[in-house]
Task: structure prediction
Amino acid sequence: MEVLEEKNLSGYLIALLEMYWTGLIQRLFKENAGNVSGKSEKKVKLRPSAKEPALTVLTDVIIKLDFALFKHSKYSVGKGFVVRKK
Result:
């Protein structure tokens, strides 16, 4: 295989959010996030939708901020490669 292109996909801001964002969202919206039986906390229930979520704008801003902060770093949390068979 021959590497044609290598690109940094995400910096440290994205990595930090990937580690903690899922757990935070589950705590807010998952019916039994703590996996505790008998605990009756009121949670917001979400219905499936085909519409783009409103927080997509926030996600795009975070991705652009991460790129602006770490675009010149030689290190990356995520890497992308374009390869071809020799």
